[in-house]
Design brief:
Shape: extended
Helix content: 10-25%
Number of helices: 1
Order of helices and strands: HEEEEEEEEEEEEEE
Mean pLDDT: 74
Largest sheet: 14 strands, mixed
Number of strands: 14
Length: 314
């Protein structure tokens, strides 16, 4: 009888351990297959997030170009990424639409602005706008994440659709939806604009912000500061490549230009002192300033790219 009870107890113990092992094994198998299922989903989500963090050109019409330090101006094409540190420019009649997910930047004709290299990252975007018009439509977030700097005022976006227009003497912000904080550099004036309101700042305007709209926003005082964008006056690119050129190499990374037109007709009688007048805008007329010794512009490497890098290095 005792032996029988021992056998029954042993059998029950074995069955319990076997049942526990089966339960543990099923759990591990379920975890394994769940992991196999989730890995592609996570990879897809990560890839989608990486793509969404880039501003990509969706539409282009007319002459639109990119230029950057060490990179000659080249034509913008649909599908190109707007890289940080690059300046986009549009000629008369040129337009572009740039998007990141559902957020967009519409660029009007005769506009020049840069995607700041040092003030932009995955969590915020800063445009340095020197002239023209951009229309921005971005999502609302808990913290300001989109900034537009002009030579006269800055716009801090809190989720909205708004326009920024800049010319030689004035910058103006008008809001279609949401809230935009505006600050005037010369006076320190600040205002929060809502739908239907606008604010402008003129060069050397000691009166501060000029505000308007269906209802005028409240203007409050704040600290003055210097703009991050230089005033206008730099030349536009003369030559625009059809394809994206490679960045120049060398000690200065092509900062002073490369392969300028300074060699055209510039080898005439240029056997000695062949580097004279190499900065004459790369036009290489050969005989300019050289009627006497014929050595001017010989083999000049010229800095005559004329490819204004705008504010793209900022």
């Amino acid at each position: 009888m005792v032996v029988y009870d021992l056998k029954n107890n042993l059998k029950a113990s074995c069955e319990a351990r076997h049942s526990k092992y089966k339960s543990w094994l099923k759990h591990k198998v379920a975890v394994f297959f769940a992991a196999l299922f989730l890995i592609p989903v996570l990879l897809t989500a990560t890839a989608t997030g990486a793509v969404a963090s880039e501003w990509v050109v969706k539409r282009v019409s007319g002459i639109v170009y990119f230029v950057a330090p060490g990179v000659e101006a080249f034509r913008v094409k649909r599908g190109m990424a707007f890289e940080e540190g690059y300046t986009m420019g549009t000629r008369a009649g040129g337009r572009a639409l740039i998007a990141r997910g559902e957020e967009t930047i519409s660029v009007g004709p005769n506009t020049t602005f840069a995607m700041s290299k040092y003030l932009s990252n995955n969590s915020k975007t800063t445009l340095l706008q020197r002239k023209g018009t951009v229309t921005v439509d971005v999502a609302k977030r808990s913290r300001p994440h989109f900034f537009v700097e002009t030579p006269f005022l800055a716009a801090v976006v809190k989720g909205t659709r708004f326009d920024v227009t800049v010319d030689n003497t004035r910058a103006r912000v008008s809001v279609d939806r949401g809230v935009v904080g505006v600050e005037d550099f010369s006076s320190g004036d600040r205002a929060d604009l809502t739908a239907g309101q606008n604010a402008s700042s003129a060069n050397g305007n000691n009166g501060g912000l000029s505000v308007g709209g269906r209802t005028k926003p409240e203007v409050r005082k704040g600290p003055k500061r210097n703009p991050k964008v230089a005033t206008l006056g730099r030349p536009e690119p003369v030559n625009i490549q059809s394809e994206k050129p490679q960045k120049s190499k060398g000690l200065f990374g092509g900062l002073f230009g490369s392969n300028s037109n300074g060699n055209s007709n510039g080898n005439s009688n240029g056997s000695s002192n062949g580097n004279g007048n190499g900065n004459s805008n790369g036009n290489g007329n050969g005989n300019s300033n050289g009627n006497g010794n014929g050595n001017s512009n010989g083999n000049s490497n010229g800095n005559g790219n004329g490819n204004s890098n705008g504010n793209s290095g900022k």
